[in-house]
Specification:
mainly alpha
């Protein structure tokens, strides 16, 4: 069974996603435009109210001008 969105590892993922966005100098609204979703969707992912799947993770990384492979490596180092 996959971990809940309230699991510690998912909290690490949410912080990682927020960091990627902020490092790219993007607001939630700007990232939402790049991802073709509402700002509220980005906010809900970052707050843990919406699940992040691997395909959306790849899109998120690319929208933040990050190579997904490097982003995943950084996430693994954090203990997720």
């Amino acid at each position: 069974m996959p971990p809940s969105i309230h699991h510690r590892r998912y909290e690490v993922l949410r912080k990682h996603l927020r960091s990627l966005r902020r490092s790219a100098g993007l607001t939630q609204a700007e990232l939402g435009v790049r991802l073709k979703v509402d700002q509220s969707h980005v906010s809900k992912v970052e707050r843990g109210e919406r699940y992040m799947d691997v395909l959306f993770y790849l899109d998120w990384c690319r929208a933040c001008k990050q190579q997904p492979e490097a982003a995943i490596a950084a996430l693994v180092k954090t203990g997720a």
